[in-house]
Write a structure and sequence with these properties.
Elements (H helix, E strand, L loop, with lengths): L4 E3 L6 E3 L4 E3 L5 E4 L6 E5 L5
Antiparallel strand pairs: 1-2, 3-4, 4-5
C-alpha cells in the first residue's frame, strides 16, 4: 500500500503524508513542511 502524497501550498514540495502531519489530542492536526517550514495548525478533522 502506498502512502498519500501531500503538496505544500507554500513551496509545492511533495512528501508522504505520514511525515508531515502531527495529530493533537483535541482531534486537530498540524501540518509542517520539512522544506520551507510552512506550518498550518488546527486543521479540523471529521471527528473534531
Amino acid at each position: 500500500m502506498s502512502d498519500i502524497t501531500v503538496i505544500c501550498p507554500n513551496c509545492q514540495d511533495q512528501k508522504p503524508i505520514s511525515n508531515l502531519l502531527t495529530a493533537q489530542s483535541n482531534q486537530n492536526i498540524i501540518y509542517k513542511c520539512e522544506k520551507c517550514q510552512y506550518e498550518k495548525k488546527n486543521i479540523q478533522t471529521k471527528k473534531g
